[in-house]
Amino acid sequence: GGLEGPPSEEHAEPPREDSSADVGQRVITGVVMAVVALGAFAAGRPVAAVLVTIVIGVGAFELYEALRRAGYHTAVAIGLLGCVAMVPAAYHIGERAFPLISALVVTFTMLWYLFEVVHARPTVNVALTVLVFAYVGILGGFAGLFLAGNGGTGFLGGVIICAIGSDVVAYFVGRSFGQTPLMPKISPNKTLEGLIAGAFAAVVLGGIVGGVLHPWAIKGVGGGLALGFVVAVTAPIGDLVESMLKRDLRVKDLGGVLPGHGGFLDRFDAMLFALPAAYYLALYLFFH
Using an 8 Å Cβ cutoff, are 79 and 283 in contact? Predict the structure, then answer.
């Protein structure tokens, strides 16, 4: 079961102006998140891996919950186990984790409906269970790959700095100066001006990362600029993809855990597309 097709116009999300109170709340939450992340990364790779695992687990749960509210009956237990297992597995056994966990999730999701753990249409619900796992678990699992090696917190930290910095600049420039809608049918509040400013910020921050943050600094500013460019391209796509899914499910935010930001997945959606691209860039730059 579940809803199909795009929302009708009366369900479409209207453009909204965030009040100054919303913005203040957003900034405070952002500062708290930054402090928590810095603390975890300073504590070392294992602690950072635990934090990333929590973020991915909560993000996956939020999307499964949105699907449940839309009338679907996914194998949440299997999908969540797969998502939560992906980062520690990638951290401990590297790239071999991906086919292993993926095979287990696909197989046990099929068995979930074969043995009627829930009585629901198998085809659509198997597909949606695996969709969330692939989107959040597999793409997010690249954070575990980053953390697996020496310098992992620096590698992953560089990606996060570019992606979050880009997002913050895009938000404030779009809010203050944005006039040209980017993809109004998908996300009515995003503007071309915000996109350009965010991309510029990602490249500038990448250059700074390449100058000062080990191990990116080994390749210097050039390597950092390459990272910034990769994030500038992938992060906005990740953001728009999540907006597309939310629009199809007719929800504004996937969660309310983070005041002013929505849920974990609302906050870290851009990272999901940036992580694999940045990982393969790092492989090329450092191990080619």
Answer: no
